Amino acid sequence: MTKRQAAAQLAAPGIDAVREAYLTGGSDAQRVAALIEIAGAAAALARTLARYRHVDRVELFELVSRRSDVLPVLGRGQWLPTMTYHVPAPGKRRNRRRGNGSAARPVPAVVQPELFASAVGGR
User: Fold this and answer.
1) What domain count does the chain have?
2) C-beta of residue 70 within 8 angstroms of C-beta of residue 57
3) What pLDDT is recorded for position 61?
4) Where is the segment annotated Disordered (predicted)?
5) What is the DSSP letter of 79?
6) Distance CA 113, CA 116 (A)
């Protein structure tokens, strides 16, 4: 498991809880307010850890799925109106692969039934 995958696995329960707040509950304004509260608390905790534990920003860039979120969370930038995107459920994230056409595709295994005929059919 890579460090990025470990960080994503650590974040998965929180993302599930945030998605639940997003999908259920009262009015749109109430849901937005709840998400702002969650994001504010999470950002404050992230800033506290980064500040007092001297976490390297470059390392954070390598661990997160969206580098553009690092600086705003740490208070060194701002979110822009264009920074909206779909947040899939943690278990349903796609693995991004490079479009390298030269990579070998796995070949399905061929089972030779006559080798196993005596074990299966009792012959």
Assistant:
1) 1
2) yes
3) 92
4) 84-107
5) -
6) 5
- Packed helices 3-23 and 28-52: angle between N→C axes, nearest 10 degrees: 150
Tokens 């920074």 sit on residue: 83
Q: Which domain holds residue 26?
A: 3-94
> Taking 80 as the threshold, does the pLDDT of residue 32 lie above it?
yes
- In sequence order, which ranges of the chain are alpha helices (DSSP H)? 3-23, 28-52, 57-63, 70-73, 113-121
Report percent pLDDT > 70 for the chain: 69
CA dihedral of 84, 85, 91, 96, whole degrees rounded to 10: -130
What are the tens digits of pLDDT across the range 71-109?
Answer: 888 887 776 766 677 777 776 555 555 555 555 556 555
The residue whose two tokens read 């995958």 is: 5
Q: Which amino acid is at 73?
A: V
